[in-house]
């Protein structure tokens, strides 16, 4: 139990730290797809040390299927996330992650025929109400116009893909364990992140002046990925996703601390309300 709680706190803290580094790298001239590719590539090289521990031949075929799908969703989701951070405020984009539970409810209605309960509707209402305070800090205010902004669209796409990734990686963990899930998510993530760079025909050379930040990004992302897998192994995914929302508050604080972003009090208030809504929606 103590190990799970420790992993949970590591996940909550490492995620916004990674976002800070991703945003700072894009602000200093690194392209988002390059940041995405080198993150997965660096972690993939690290994972080579586990080759002597993993019996690749003994891994079930279904593990490769789920890992492949999870790697695709993870690479695409992280690419959208870094692109959103390049264009938008961390303190604005962080709280939007609470909409992940709304997206899950939406897809559940149309694809799984899951009709939301009154508690679910109440949770969704809290998320929308909390986002009112967050979006009111922008010139468009709380309106459909704000959803036309590129960074908001990228962030929503990121949360959708990462939510789907979580489901696939949970299957990998159940079939083959935490280590295999970690290694495969890095390897397949590297493959698909390279394909994204290739399709966009972008240079993949990192900014030499930011090597130290890339290494720190590898560390925080690696901790985030491993701790996520550990929590998924010992906790229901829905519960874990609800608790992960606590990193939203850190995102708002870090946006103010590292990038001098404004209207922090109102964003914090909205974030707390959105977190409450996500918890109600996912858990009840």
Notable characteristics:
284 residues, mainly alpha
Layout of secondary structure:
Blueprint: H1 2-27, H2 32-47, H3 61-87, H4 90-96, H5 99-111, H6 118-135, H7 150-176, H8 178-200, H9 211-234, H10 237-244, H11 247-259, H12 264-283
Class derived from helix and strand content: mainly alpha
List the total number of helices: 12
- Distance between the amino and carboxyl termini: 23 Å
As a percent range, the share of helical residues equals over 70%
Total of domains: 1
What spatial form do the alpha-carbon principal axes imply?
globular
Given as residue ranges, the uncertain stretches (5+ residues, pLDDT < 50) are none
- Can you give the mean pLDDT? 86
Strand content: under 5%
Short description:
The protein is mainly alpha-helical and 284 residues long.
3D structure, described in words:
The chain has 12 helices and no strands. By secondary structure, it is mostly helical. The chain has one domain (2-283). The two termini are 23 Å apart. The mean pLDDT is 86.
């Amino acid at each position: 139990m103590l190990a799970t709680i420790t992993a949970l706190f590591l996940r909550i803290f490492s995620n916004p730290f990674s976002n800070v580094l991703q945003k700072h790298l894009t602000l200093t001239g690194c392209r988002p797809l390059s940041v995405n590719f080198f993150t997965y590539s660096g972690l993939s090289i690290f994972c080579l040390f586990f080759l002597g521990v993993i019996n690749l031949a003994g891994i079930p075929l279904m593990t490769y299927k789920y890992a492949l799908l999870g790697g695709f969703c993870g690479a695409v989701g992280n690419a959208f996330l870094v692109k959103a951070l390049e264009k938008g405020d961390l303190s604005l984009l962080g709280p939007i992650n609470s909409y992940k539970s709304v997206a899950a409810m939406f897809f559940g209605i149309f694809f799984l025929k899951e009709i939301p309960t009154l508690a679910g509707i109440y949770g969704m209402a809290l998320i929308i109400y909390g986002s009112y305070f967050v979006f009111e800090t922008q010139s468009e205010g709380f309106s459909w116009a704000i959803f036309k902004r590129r960074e908001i669209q990228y962030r929503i796409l990121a949360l959708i893909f990462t939510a789907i990734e979580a489901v696939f990686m949970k299957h990998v963990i159940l079939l083959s364990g935490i280590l295999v899930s970690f290694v495969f998510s890095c390897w397949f993530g590297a493959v698909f992140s390279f394909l994204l760079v290739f399709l966009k025909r972008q240079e993949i050379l990192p900014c030499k002046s930011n090597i130290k930040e890339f290494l720190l990004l590898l560390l925080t992302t690696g901790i985030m990925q491993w701790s996520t897998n550990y929590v998924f192994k010992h906790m229901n995914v829905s519960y874990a996703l609800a608790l992960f929302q606590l990193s939203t508050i850190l995102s708002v604080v870090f946006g103010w601390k590292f990038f001098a972003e404004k209207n922090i009090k109102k964003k914090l208030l909205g974030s707390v309300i959105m977190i409450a809504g996500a918890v109600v929606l996912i858990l009840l």
